[in-house]
Amino acid sequence: MADSLIQNDINSPAWKGGDVPYKASYGKLMMWFFLITDTLTFSAFLAGYGFSRFKFKDIWPVPEDVFTHFPFLHGDHPLLFVALMTFILIMSSVTMVLAVNYGHKMQKNKVILWLSFTIIGGIMFLSSQAWEWGHFIHGDSGAIEMKYANESGSSEIVHVVKDGSIYSIYDIMGAKSHDGAHHEFAIEDFKEKFSFEKELGLRLSNKTFKNHSESVLYLDQHASKVLLGADLKKNEYGHVLFADYFFFITGFHGFHVFSGVVLLIILLINTIKGTYEKRGHYEMVEKIGLYWHFVDLVWVFVFTFFYLV
Amino acid sequence: MSNEKNSGNWWIWKVFWILLGLTTFEVALGIIKPDFLVNTQFLGTKLLNHVFIILTLIKAGYIVLVFMHLGFEENSLKWTILIPAFVLVPYLLFIVLIEGTHAFNALML
Hints:
Radius of gyration of chain A: 26 Å
Structural class of chain B: mainly alpha
Order of helices and strands of chain B: HHEEHH
Number of domains of chain B: 2
Distance between the termini of chain B: 61 Å
Oligomer: heterodimer
Strand content of chain A: 5-15%
CATH superfamily of the largest domain in chain A: Cytochrome c oxidase, subunit III, four-helix bundle
Structural class of chain A: alpha+beta
Low-confidence stretches of chain B: none
Shape of chain B: flat
Mean pLDDT of chain A: 89
Low-confidence stretches of chain A: 1-9
Largest sheet of chain B: 2 strands, antiparallel
Helix content of chain B: over 70%
Number of domains of chain A: 2
CATH architecture of the largest domain in chain A: Up-down Bundle
Number of strands of chain B: 2
Number of strands of chain A: 6
Largest interface: A-B, 56 and 49 residues
Radius of gyration of chain B: 19 Å
Mean pLDDT of chain B: 89
Strand order of the largest sheet of chain B: 1-2
């Protein structure tokens, strides 16, 4: 019986692994199966984003109008900050492969070194995301919410423009956006100030413009409130679903990064204690590595579908 | 497991430079927005978006096949992992995005 099993093992190359078709350990297989389910979860989120974007394609905000800021730099720098975040995550993926590679060679100190760099990369990414969220929640130029008296009671987000580009409502109201104070502007005050500044106009959510006199009339008819910043129920950048998906998808990804950092810290402690040295192999580094690369992989897709497309 | 491949670190850095180069290229395209890519429509979206998606899939391929080592695993394992994603994700996108277009048309009525 035992003989036939062994023979079978050698002589059945049909699936090449013989009686062990995947030639992978239990732990690695289970990590892979978890990653398949997670792939489908993230795909569903991004597909949901795609659905809403297609459904509201005429009024959906253009991502590069939304994410234009870089810490400590003034002016518009679309894409630069997320490009930096992508770089940080790719870099931390590289340091993770190096840790796995030195794990195969049983070089404990090199594993410790590269795991530490990976943890630093993860923390840098999370900090960048915190800044990005903070900026998104605080808002940029502000916007006006219009309410229409039709059956569905629909609403629309419009922006103030000057010479074709978005103009900050803080400037109109004579306030500073980043002075640490909490701002709220009454719609009546805004309408009054707006009516005096003849070079101001409005940009509707379908990206068409109204000149000053049209805008004053339009504001009188429909303006309901001044929106500053974004949360789950309001969004100065455009459709509220855009903010909801932003928080949900980048938040879910960020939670994965956070979990990854926690796992990496446990891994680092165990490596320093010599757990894997005693065990005779560093397969745990490989398994956590799979998870960490997956987090990088998801970001590559989030970067494309949330920021580029 | 493919020790000859893991003998040095050069292959890790090679993939790093490829990923970095592709990302830089994507960002540059996103900022410059060449006219012929933005104005040409194909399959319901800009040609530029197709370029982004293709570059993203190339990056994803390098991460999964090299960094996650899937390219060096047994074919049985490789396809067990890839086929569900290759079948289910395009199917999901197909039904959901077409439904989104219908929802848009319904709103416009």
